[in-house]
Write a structure and sequence with these properties.
With about 950 residues, the chain is of the alpha/beta class. It has six domains: about 350 residues, TIM Barrel; about 70 residues, Immunoglobulins (Immunoglobulin-like, Sandwich); about 100 residues, Immunoglobulin-like; about 80 residues, SH3 type barrels (Roll); about 110 residues, Immunoglobulin-like (Sandwich); about 170 residues, Zn-dependent exopeptidases (Aminopeptidase), CATH 3.40.630. Helices cover about 25% and strands about 35% of the residues. It has 19 helices and 56 strands. Strands 1-2-5-8-9-10-11-12 form an eight-stranded parallel barrel, surrounded by four helices. Strands 52-49-53-56-54-55 form a six-stranded mixed beta sheet, sandwiched between helices. It is elongated.
Length: about 950
């Protein structure tokens, strides 16, 4: 090190050499003349201005360049101040390349535009050994002395914000060898070449700092000082040029003895460069600089944008590099290599850059690559006439499909439906430099499936429920034995509560079989035909046999029949005159131990809800064969109601009927309630609940009700062989469900009382999906399960604040549909709400709520209307749907689809915190309003 100092002093010819250690002893350095984050452009002679032009023309060129930089929101300009032809500033020691003071003009423009100005001094040009001015073949003491003297004069005259040094490399050739022999003494040639570079940088830094301590002294560097293969302290790169070996730069010595404030790192490689990636290069330099109290800035080659080099084709490459400058500790900003490239605005890149600097866009948007989450497969065959694409991209840059630009929401999410022609269809998505191509082959199949299938034996006159999955918009008919029916298109509703993104929808209708005869009849297969876009397709459904004349339930003493007993906790019932697997909201369950005669053979149905086997009971309903067990043949007998009682607790009121004899079946109805053909309520304003107990004699008076706020009266009456229990409601339509069970010989009906508002109410909130079941997902960015859970927690918080007791399904892991039902029934709430977000074709929008039992309809209507209002979308209304979590009678239960994730505009709202809060309030209000209307 002593040799370096002696040699540096000799080269300096009287300039004082002071390293960082010496400067530290003098106290704190003055504040540097630099912005908090550097946003600069580099103006190049011959490109941005012409030094050979007249002063007037050159001034105009500089004025235009500085104005453009200011308009772009830059805060600094880097300006080369010497070229191979001479200085671009007033100098007493070097010839000038212009007839005027170009640097002085630039300073005036910088001051007028309030921009920092940093001269870039290229030490590769200067006074030559043999006389004259021009490029150096090698460094010499005279060249170093001249350069540092000029730098000192420049700093003293112009007082710049800072100076950046470039062109300080040395070479090993005949010229440098000759200089070594004259100046190097016994240092050794290799050491001398390297120490020339160190001396130049050390003395140049002091030349600037000695004249203006607050001026930034910066060093322009190439991307790689040394590859790690050349030096263990080097970077994880494989660049062809290394400053250590190609420029003889002793980095440790330079940093130790120089006053370097910032390193400006040339970064020609993209983020994906295999040899010297942007992030690798900048991070290495930042780490080295920080060790010596300096910062770095990135010299970004934005003029490469749109080129064929790896990574540069993407218009967001510059933006991603700028984002990395903010992420790398010790990095103080960026210098853009080309002002014309900014003006060119390749792919809208400059527009995005300026918006980013203005805090108008999010980093995460820029870092988003094109992703198409649906369909998952890129090549496949389908029978669908359309395909739905869902995905996401950077919203700041265009996205196209087959060359046509797509519209997206503010987060870059897109959703579109494309028609498929028969045969192969190709769709190419292009975004930034990424292309995703789909090859989809369409087969035209109008009817996907028809139910029932297989073989079935039915009672004469039975209505067979037909379900045909066919293209939406088809004309579908079913016929059997000369009878024909046109099926009606329905909405698709399945237990996963996801919307329909398929072009296949259910067509439903009832096909009546011929009357029964003395013997079984084979009436053939059900024929199904569908017409779509002029194309006709026909298929065969189930083969149907009509049983011989049906048996009648015994109803007088001495008659016999076959008894069955309910073994399920609650046996679902179905209409007797219809055969399908669809639950009906107007058919109420029978509790365990109920006994009745069967009046049919076992009936089978293979349909859209799977395989079903049933018996028809004497009370006039159909039950699943799996819910009952045979008790064998028995004579008809009457049971009796021998006593009644009633009691109440904080939530329930009970009505109990003491019975003797068999625990016979019964039916339940709510007089005045209208139902659709599928069992959905058209309204619920019932003032009574009516229970008809089959084969039961009344041997007692009407029950006296315990004090309660639900029922106003109860009466028992005899109707032939049946006993009728009539329960009057205090308020028409005010009903919160019931559960019936046999307790010993007593048939008990337990009713939810009406709570006095939310205070005292128990509410169960069920966020749909969870665990590995994410529900609808858009480009992996938005998962329905997380949105459902978030909304559920917001709703629960609001309801609790209003005084309600609330339980929420824990969906951190997977929860089955049966478990959700079981958990909610164990909690015994007054109301149940399952929260979902919908999916469908890209144009689908709005809020809808599904109910099953008739007294859930009011809650469904309230939820759909209020959530739609909060979201500012279409109210699709209350809809009847047999979802697993709603198909029970214990309490009103509703499944609400808040909005469509597959609609980009609606998704933007569903992701917005303000809308989320508004929806949560709307759900809470709907629950509160439903309870309040019943008081």
């Amino acid at each position: 090190m002593k040799k370096i100092l002696r040699f540096a002093a000799a080269l300096a010819c009287g300039l004082c050499l002071m390293g960082t250690a010496a400067r530290a002893e003098e106290g704190a350095s003055p504040a540097l003349q630099q912005p908090q984050e550097l946003r600069a452009v580099y103006l190049a002679p011959g490109r941005d201005f012409d030094p050979a032009a007249s002063e007037e023309d050159c001034r105009a060129q500089l004025e235009a360049a500085f104005s453009q930089a200011a308009e772009y929101g830059m805060n600094a300009v880097f300006l080369p101040v010497n070229t191979a032809s001479g200085a671009l500033f007033a100098s007493e020691h070097w010839p000038m390349a212009t007839g005027f003071d170009l640097l002085g003009c630039a300073q005036q423009e910088a001051a007028a535009k309030e921009l920092y100005l940093y001269p870039v001094f290229d030490a590769a040009f200067g006074l030559q050994t043999g006389g004259g001015y021009g490029p150096h073949s090698a460094l010499s003491a005279a060249a170093v002395q001249s350069a540092c003297q000029v730098l000192a004069d420049l700093t003293a005259r112009y007082q710049p914000n800072g100076v950046y040094l470039a062109g300080y490399y040395n070479h090993k050739d005949a010229g440098s060898m000759s200089l070594y022999r004259a100046e190097g003494a016994s240092m050794g040639y290799e050491n001398w070449v390297r120490e020339c570079v160190t001396s130049l940088v050390v003395n140049a830094s002091q030349a600037v700092k000695g004249q203006r301590g607050e001026a930034v002294f910066g060093l322009m560097v190439d991307p790689v000082w040394a590859n790690v293969a050349s030096d263990p302290a080097g970077s994880a790169t494989s660049a062809s040029f290394e400053m250590l070996t190609g420029g003889f730069v002793d980095l440790n010595a330079i940093f130790t003895w120089s006053s370097i404030d910032q390193v400006l790192v040339r970064c020609p490689g993209s983020l994906a460069d295999e040899n010297a990636a942007f992030g690798t290069v900048l991070s290495w330099w930042a780490g080295v600089a920080q060790q010596h109290g300096a910062s770095v800035a990135a010299y970004i080659y934005n003029d490469k944008l749109g080129g064929d080099e790896a990574g540069w084709k993407a218009p967001d490459q510059v933006m991603r590099q700028v984002i990395q400058t903010r992420e790398i500790p010790g990095c103080g900003g960026a210098v853009f290599a080309s002002l014309p490239a900014l003006q060119e605005n390749t792919g809208g890149s400059t527009d995005v850059l300026l918006r980013y600097y203005a805090d108008q866009i999010e980093e995460n948007d820029i870092l988003t690559d094109l992703s198409v989450s649906t369909p998952e497969k890129r090549t496949f065959t389908t029978q669908e006439p359309q395909v739905n694409f869902y995905g996401a991209s950077d919203p700041n840059f265009p996205l196209s499909i087959n060359g046509k630009e797509l519209e997206r929401n503010g987060e870059g999410v897109f959703s579109l439906e494309m028609d498929l022609a028969p045969g192969q269809n190709t769709f190419a998505f292009e975004h930034k430099e990424k292309t995703i191509t789909y090859n989809i082959t369409r087969e035209v199949v109008i009817i996907k499936e028809a139910a029932p299938s297989g073989s079935m034996t039915v009672e004469g006159g039975t209505q067979i429920g037909m379900t045909v999955m066919a293209y939406s918009g088809s004309a579908v008919t079913a016929s059997l034995g000369g009878a024909s029916v046109t099926l009606t298109e329905q909405e698709l509703a399945t237990d996963d509560a996801d919307g329909n993104t398929s072009s296949y929808v259910p067509f439903k209708g009832m096909l009546t079989v011929p009357a029964a005869g003395e013997s079984e009849q084979d009436v053939g297969n059900i024929a199904v035909s569908a017409v779509w876009s002029g194309i006709t397709q026909s298929v065969s459904a189930a083969r149907v046999y009509v049983a011989a004349l049906p048996r009648q339930a015994p109803n007088v003493e001495g008659q016999k029949g076959n008894l069955v007993q309910v073994t399920a906790g609650q046996a679902r019932t179905y209409p007797a005159g219809v055969l399908n697997n669809d639950p009906y909201g107007n058919c109420f369950p029978l509790p365990k131990d109920t006994v009745d005669y069967i009046v049919s053979d076992k009936l089978t149905y293979d349909g859209d809800y799977g395989h079903g086997e049933y018996y028809i009971l004497g009370c006039g309903v159909r039950v699943s064969a799996g819910d009952v067990t045979s008790l064998g043949e028995a004579e008809w007998e009457l049971s009796s109601v021998s006593g009644t009682s009633s009691w109440a607790d904080g939530q329930y009121v009970y009505v109990s009927l003491a019975r003797s004899g068999r625990k016979t079946a019964y039916t339940v109805e709510f007089p005045g309630t209208g139902y659709s053909s599928g069992g959905g309520a058209t309204g619920f304003g019932a003032g009574q609940m009516r229970v008809v107990l089959k084969d039961t004699r009344l041997d007692t008076g009407s029950p006296e009700l315990a004090g309660n706020n639900l029922l106003s009266g109860a009466s028992l009456s005899q109707d032939g062989n049946n006993t009728v229990l009539t329960l009057d409601l205090r308020r028409a339509g005010a009903f919160l469900g019931y559960r019936a069970y046999y307790d010993g010989g007593n048939l008990v009906f337990r009713f939810n009382q009406i709570p006095s508002g939310l205070s005292g109410a128990k509410i169960y909130i069920d966020p749909g999906h969870g665990g590995y079941d994410g529900g609808t997902s858009i480009a992996g960015m938005y998962t329905e399960k997380s949105m459902n859970a978030d909304l559920a927690n917001r709703v629960a918080s609001i309801l609790r604040d209003r005084g309600a007791s609330v339980q929420v399904t824990d969906t951190s892991g997977y929860v089955s549909l049966d478990a959700r039902v079981s958990q909610s029934q164990s909690y015994s709430p007054h109301l149940f709400v399952s929260l979902h977000h919908n999916s469908g074709v890209s144009s689908a929008s709005g809020t809808e709520a599904y109910y099953f039992n008739p007294y859930s309809r009011l809650l469904a209507s309230n939820l759909s209307g209020r959530v739609a209002g909060a979201l500012g979308t279409r109210d699709r209304g209350a809809k009847y749907g047999a979802y697993r979590v709603t198909t029970h009678m214990d309490f009103p239960a509703v499944l609400v689809e808040c909005g469509f994730l597959t609609n980009p505009d609606e998704l933007s709202k569903l992701q917005n915190d303000g809308y989320k809060n508004a929806m949560a309030v709307a759900v809470a209000d709907a629950i509160q309003n439903t309870l309040s209307s019943m008081q």
